[in-house]
Amino acid sequence: MTRSARRRPGGGWTLIETLVAVALTAVLAAVVLSTWMTVHRVLRGRGARVTRAASVADALRRMATDLECACEPASGPAFELQSDKRAAVGTALRFCSVAAATDGTDGGAPEMAELRYEVARDETAQPRMVRIRRPAAGPGAMGMGTTNALVARAEAISIEAFDGTNWLAAWPAPGGERLPRAVRISVAYGGASGPATARVETVVQAGVPVRPRIERRAAPASAR
Q: Is the pTM of this model over 0.70?
């Protein structure tokens, strides 16, 4: 019997040919699906890192604004800082400021409030920076304050205060100054193209000593 006589009438596919076609289709579909999932994962990760960079920038701007308006309270410490450069968790900063509220609690009207920036671990054990705002006077002064999460999944956060001579990782300063002259913050996080670091340095207006330009001198005896 010739080969042509053994073929199925009508030129249809044999069972083996059908199985081979199904297998090739399955392999092609798996390759396409795997490629799509990889591209989707990369784009989603890049979008998350870009969003994280924007949140870091917003957090640093808010901290700079609060520090520029720092002031001395009527009682108690004016500025407290505890920072560990070797680890993100454990960094804490507390001070009073008259910056306008941006959390919607009072319509944005300026008032003196106690601000606390601290780093702790969230429910996924990742370090994050939060801002706790509590009014310095009024009914809200005895409460827990309003907490806002600023930076999530930050790899490292360090804060240093300048006393006029040195940058210190802890405050109050040995010299007894109530407020530092400047503060600088550094945040390390995962950027869009790898590890990135954002920094800001701001002057604490109330901590800069003001020296009068007019000097009082006694009039000479001939002019009396």
A: no
